[in-house]
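Handout, page 2. Input:
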Amino acid sequence: MPKGGTPRLMLDPSLPEQERIRRIEAYARAQLERFLEQQQPQGWGHTYPQDGPSLGAWLAASGERLVRVGMRAARLVAIWSVAAVVLLLLGLYVHSQRVLGTLVATSQAVWDRPLEPNAPLRPGRYGLEQGYAKIALRRGAEVIIQAPASFRLQGTNKVYLTSGCLTAKVPPQSVGFTVRTPGSSVVDFGTEFGLLVGTQRSSEVHVFEGSVGCKALDQTYTQTLTRGQAATFDLSGRMELVLMAHRPRWFTRQIPSGPQFAIPGKRLSLADMVGGGSGLGTGIIGQGIDPSTGLVTSGRQVLKKAGSGFAVVPGLPYVDGVFVPDANQGPVVISSTGIIFRDCPRTVGTCFETILYGAVFQAGSFEQHPGQLLGRTYCTVDQPSIGMHPNAGITFDLERIRSNIPDVTIRRFRAICGISQTALDYSRRDWDPNLVKTDFWVLVDGQVRFHRRLGILPEGHAQIDLAIGPQERFLTLATTSEGLYRYCWAMFAEPALELDSRRNEMTH
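Output:
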């Protein structure tokens, strides 16, 4: 007990919210009663019981009594100042402690502070560094947060997204659910939508169902978006309307139920990006890219086409472009900025198949089958791969990737490369397995960081593990063959960018 015999306020965290507020109010009433008695002990009169009127009504009645007993104006002002401070502190506490929602589900989540499953969520900032989290707000909206993300809960129907991705499902009772960002505002009209805020505080909204109203913060005009529509906001607040079909699949609409290869804030799948995804399993397995033209294809296609230089790939922002490696025709350009593959060998100058998310191969009239390395099949979201029958090359733009993963550093590129083990049995039917060989290349900003020639006799594969610097922009994968190409079923298994939060980087 502190000096003067006044007990401290002790609150059990397990008490219901309303009971804690009631006890705070009773404590404040008792403290003010004691203070006023000390200021005017004579003629003060009775006090209200602990479960009597509200604190506001009690103060009003106390003021009338102070006037009746002749309290001087200066003293009255001082007393009311103390009372106002107590009321303000009480109000601030109640406001900060009110429960706005509940953390109902997570998947491989790492927070910047301890958060238990089913934890009540109060006003304030939250940082999700890794994984996924699902929040149920008290008005009924369900929000999936995708790391890395920083956000504030501002009300039972209002969120401020500083950076990162969220997806919201809004039932009828939550119409009016609002998400603000540093440069835009989205108001939901009963729908499902996704919102992304990048490193430069630009933002993008996609509408999956229903409709939303969105606008730049410095504008009064609100644009209504309906199902299948999207809008982007640049740094100046300029809004551009686009179709979702022409944009990457940034958003996860449900939390993964089990372990997955790609983890927000920890690892991105380059194979998923070939499939039009964000690197987090949202791409389409079986989607391919023609390395001679940059056109996106559905399914594996046999091409046997000559290259015509570096080709950009519309609709895949993380893919800078593709090319057919062959030094016979002069310098081989491998980026949109004109970087040259100076060590590129001479090849037949022909690409034979599409670059494919989910390596599958086919021998003659036999059925297609997934690629295998080290006795494992790599053709799923959780065991991804890129099929790259030579001669083919693809360049990823690391700077564009960084722009959509705020507060995260790309640390390494890892993959397993080799010719599918299935090629051995098929090649023995009508070919010499000793002739099946492919050169695998990895370049960073045009500099060769990895090169290995691999075959199937003896069976060969190689682990790739390369550091990526913060200023390095272009990552290029390529496969080449000097001439003989049959059964060169080349693949990169589990090609990934390993990430680390900048907070962890500073700690290290």
